[in-house]
What we know:
Layout: E1 6-11, E2 17-23, E3 28-32, E4 53-57, H1 76-90, E5 95-100, H2 102-113, E6 118-124, H3 139-154, H4 156-166, H5 170-178, H6 188-197, H7 203-215, H8 219-222, E7 229-234, H9 242-251, E8 256-260, H10 267-270, H11 272-284, H12 295-299
Parallel strand pairs: 3-4, 3-5, 5-6, 6-7, 7-8
Antiparallel strand pairs: 1-2, 2-4
Helix pairs in contact: 1-2, 3-4, 3-7
Amino acid sequence: MVPGIQQRHVTARDGTRIGYQVRGEGPCVVLANGLGGTYLAFRHVYTALTGYKTICWDYRGLYTSGASADPRANTLPHQVDDLIDILAAEGVDDFVIAGWSMGVQVAFETVRRHPDRVKGLLAINGTYGKTFRTVMGSRLVGRTIPMLLRLIRAQAALASFATRRVATSEVMLRAMIRVGLVSSTVDLEVFRAIANGFQSIDWVIYSDLLTRLDEHDAEEVLASIGVPVTIVTGDRDLMTPPSTAEHIHRAIPQSRLVVIKGGTHYTPVEYPRVLIDEVGRWLDRIPGWERKAGAAEVRGA
């Protein structure tokens, strides 16, 4: 579905086998995914990245990555360490990072731990930390989620069975559109491919990863970021509401905020032309990562 992708693996410093995807050559663009999908969530973003070395990876315990021997080793710093091990294997020093959903928190944690290496940051439908505090703009919902995650862990086998039955169901997709979790403009082919990946999810690991997101907080990092930053959100995003993006925008000096009318948490596969355009604008602000001649035609594809 993404031409030119190469699947590779690296052994992380704690022995965990991490799967990652590489495409192209040139200045490096890192794609930090959400928990809601594989590299396919960036299917349309790749269109703007011809002429760059693009690296994406699967978080430990998900998709092509193995689970860590230590069940406690699923924190945001562990995910960043995995990225750094991948970059070492690929011979990459400086890079820019684009994160979607959970990947935004990964990006901010990467800036905290490796500020001199990150030359630009694109935050798509994400937050800076304490994830449950901002879900649906409701503190009550935030307090309920930990209880639901404990239930999922206790009934992981049942959750896996249910996921296999409904992950690619047309009825489920239509229901998500009706309640506003996904826009009617969504690329159905890509969204089905993303949903299909959930059939292999280990719900014990997945629920633990979600819990770790709520333990993470990088708010104090925001004001110190001095590289080009673009923040993209949808005005119908229930998972990370526009108010969260606005808070990040106010905290990061000289950042650019883009609110997509009608967009939900899945804007990369709902409004690809907007995302492709914003990726290009963002790269043009970063010395050494500017688009080459001819990129405009690719951008509009």
